[in-house]
Design a protein that fits this description.
By secondary structure, this protein is an alpha+beta fold. It is built from 13 helices and 6 strands.
Length: about 350
């Protein structure tokens, strides 16, 4: 088995087992870190079976990473559970669903006081009962809001859906309700366009607006769902039709969409390179096409909402294209392991996401 895949399996297993450590977990995190260092030293000095030690080291590293993230998240959750009052928060808008106000949502990055320290947190604000002309917030806009933030409720009974695990896997710590205009005020609408995340979000909005102008309402809603991952305007009737036909997965941007887009870009770049005779004599068109198409899948995944499945496919397409460009054998399993490691490195809780 490729080393990247073996390390990814061990790290993912550690991330999945971390919730079993209990609460608090800092002691277990310290032990896992110590074991990671010890096993890494044994691997470095070639003491014992290398692959077995590597698997155990990745397992301990996954336990430590997920345990540290979980301890930080639970500190925020416990603080909000004990706070029953409305408070004023200052935050930055990350996304505005732009949907009708009865189910419109804002994703806001803010800070929560935990034992005298300001901890960054991602919260979901649900807007309802507001005027129909309520403005849409650009990603990066600074807002002030007053609400009580409520953390997600864990599963209390066997078989009950665990909303807490789902929300924490996506980095959302709590939700709040905005029912009056006075509860949400724009502090600054100047958006720092130089930030990559803000730029991608604005590009997504611009593409969505272009689709709305070019197509009728129903077709535009479906196109934005399939291409940009924006399902805010897909009606229940449309969802029911797709679900009844067994094609409901097409309404969410996944690895299928990213792989198809990356393959299309590779074929297009290859065709163009072959037609450029001067260039094709100096470098193999296949290698040049791979270099040109390498970032396309990952860029598409980021613009389309950056779901775990889409990011996984984007990272895999990037690795495969780079492999083609440097005349390396295409190893799908290694590319999958690399993608899993990158995703879990960014957010160890992603292992709980069904799309991971």
């Amino acid at each position: 088995m490729p080393v990247a895949a073996l390390v990814a399996i061990g790290f993912a297993a550690g991330c999945a087992l971390a919730p079993l450590l209990g609460d608090p977990v800092w002691g277990a995190v310290a032990v896992a870190l110590l074991l990671t260092v010890v096993l890494g030293a044994l691997i470095f000095f070639q003491r014992g079976p290398r692959l077995t030690l590597l698997l155990l080291a990745a397992l301990c590293a996954g336990l430590a990473a997920r345990g540290a993230q979980r301890a930080d998240q639970l500190a925020l959750v416990h603080t909000l559970e004990a706070d029953l009052t409305e408070r004023i928060y200052l935050g930055e808008v990350r996304a505005d669903s732009g949907a009708p106000l009865e189910h419109r949502e804002l994703l806001v990055a803010t800070a929560i006081d935990v034992a005298g320290r300001q901890r960054p947190a991602l919260v979901l604000l649900r807007l309802h009962g507001l005027p129909a002309a309520w403005p849409r917030f650009e990603p990066g806009a600074r807002v002030q809001f007053r609400t009580r933030l409520v953390p997600p409720v864990p599963a209390w009974q066997p078989g009950q859906f665990d909303f807490r695990s789902l929300w924490l896997a996506r980095g959302v710590i709590a939700r709040g309700n905005i029912a009056r205009p006075a509860q949400l005020v724009a502090v600054s609408t100047e958006v720092p366009a130089w930030r990559i995340g803000i730029g991608l979000a604005r590009l997504r909005q611009a593409l969505g607006a272009a689709v709305d102008r070019a197509l009728p309402d129903e077709a535009a809603a479906l196109t934005r769902a399939m291409v940009l991952g924006d399902r805010s305007d897909v009606t229940r009737e449309q969802r029911a039709v797709f679900d009844g036909a067994g094609t409901g997965h097409l309404l969410a941007v996944s690895g299928l969409h990213v792989g198809a887009f990356a393959g299309l870009m590779f074929a297009l770049c290859s065709l163009l390179c072959r037609r450029w005779e001067w260039l094709s004599r100096r470098i193999a068109p296949r290698r040049l096409a791979a270099l040109c198409a390498a970032p396309s899948g990952l860029l598409f995944a980021l613009v389309a909402g950056a779901s775990p499945s889409a990011l996984r496919a984007g990272i895999m397409s990037l690795a495969v294209c780079i492999g083609i460009a440097v005349w390396r054998e295409r190893a799908t399993v290694s590319a999958l392991g690399l993608a899993a490691l990158v995703l879990l490195g960014l957010s160890p809780a992603a292992v709980d996401d069904v799309s991971f």
